[in-house]
Input
Amino acid sequence: NAGVTQTPKFRVLKTGQSMTLLCAQDMNHEYMYWYRQDPGMGLRLIHYSVGEGTTAKGEVPDGYNVSRLKKQNFLLGLESAAPSQTSVYFCATADTGREQYFGPGTRLTVT
Amino acid sequence: EDKVVQSPLSLVVHEGDTVTLNCSYEVTNFRSLLWYKQEKKAPTFLFMLTSSGIEKKSGRLSSILDKKELFSILNITATQTGDSAIYLCAVIYGGSQGNLIFGKGTKLSVKP
Output
């Protein structure tokens, strides 16, 4: 029972490169979320999903895309990375209206 | 604009002290308030508060919600160095998707 896992743990990209972050959960939660955390800014919601095949924008969606093809996986894509996207990315899952459980995070640096 | 404000932003205490962390909120359609502890990695869940005046307690940590005044406090008694962390307050609000809005956190440092 792994809970919420994220792949990769660390990544360094050059400006303009693309990548996909994977979040996987074995908690059978319907809701999944992607956040970024920056110093002094707290956790900010990028995109979220309320079920397989559905996604919606959060507070800071620009420059990111997501997909939820399977209930247990939520992918976050950066099509053309920018230095402003240097951050720590957290995935979270939840049951309806309940507390969110977070993955271990991915530290991304864009040079 | 929906917002969650935590205070203080940082706090330094000595082992054995008692601390009180504050969280105030202004959101549309409030549902619940959550407290998380974040050490060097992912936030870990502490409490979920939905009703006013009912204290939630876990060991040396306790929390209470005031829905009339729109705030919550997190108390930590007899602090230990292991309590050093960032404490995050978040509010579930809005429709059925249960989105969270986070405060910026309080960084607590407990010195031996």
Notes: The CA atoms of residues 37 and 44 of chain B lie 5 Å apart. Chain B touches chain A at residues 31-32, 34, 41-45, 48, 88, 90, 92, 96-105 (CB under 8 Å). The mean pLDDT of chain B is 93.
